[in-house]
Amino acid sequence: MNNQATQHTKVALVFGGSRGIGAAAARRLGKDGFSVGLTYVSRPDSAQEVVSQIIAGGGQAFAVRADSADADAIRAAVDSVVAHFGRLDVVVVNAGVLRLGRVDAFTLEALDEVLNVNVRGVYVAIQAAVPHMAEGGRVITIGSNSAVRPLTPIGSVYGMSKAAVAALVKGLALDLAPRGIRVNNIQPGPIETDMTIDQIEHIKPMVPLGQVGRPDDVAELVSYLSGAASGYMTGSSLTIDGGMAL
What we know:
Elements: E1 11-15, H1 20-31, E2 35-40, H2 44-56, E3 61-65, H3 71-85, E4 90-93, H4 108-129, E5 138-142, H5 156-176, E6 182-188, H6 200-203, H7 215-226, E7 237-240
Parallel strand pairs: 1-2, 1-4, 2-3, 4-5, 5-6, 6-7
GO molecular function: oxidoreductase activity
Organism: Dyella telluris
Family: Belongs to the short-chain dehydrogenases/reductases (SDR) family.
C-alpha cells in the first residue's frame, strides 16, 4: 500500500491528537478530506483508535509518539509526517499540560513543565512545521479562555502560558504573512473530556449559557480555520466558552 497522500490531498498534523479536543480535530480534518498525522505521548491505544476511525471513514492517517516537552521529538514528528505523506498543509498545536496552584505553592519544576510544553513546545512545533508549508498553509494553536480573563485563583501560570500563545500567534501572523501562511488561535473554555467529566456539574453554573462545550465544538473551528472560508483571517484568537470569559 502506498502511504503517500495523493497529489491533491492536503495533509494535516495534529499535536496531541489522541484524546479530547485533539482527537476530535483529527477526526474532523479526516472527514474534511485531509490525510492526518497525529501525535500522542502515553496512550497509543487511543491514538490508534483515532487513526482507525479516520481510515474507516475513507481517509488516511497514522500516529507517531512525540512528547511536546521534547524539541527533538517534535521535530521528528514533523519529519515523519512529511516523509509519510509527502507534504504538510495544516498544523494544529493542541498538546498542553494543566497545572494549578497558588503562587506560594507552585514549584519551579511545575512552572518549567508548563512553559516547556505550553509555550516552548508550541513554538518548536510551528518552527519545525512552517518550512514544509506552501502558500495557503495554516497554523492553528489551541489556547484557552484563561488568556482573556483569569478564571480561577490557582490558574495564574496556566493562564500566563496561554496568553503567551495568543501573543505569539499575532507576531507569527506578521512573520508568515509574506508567505501566505495564516496563523490563528482557538481559546476554548470548559470542554467535556475524560479529564473533566467528574467536574461537569460543578462547572456548568459558571458558564452563562449553562452548558459545557464538546470537543466537536472546537473541531468545527479547526475545520473552519483550515479551509478556504477563513482565507482572510490571520493573527486572530477565537474564544469559544459559552460566554464564560465575558
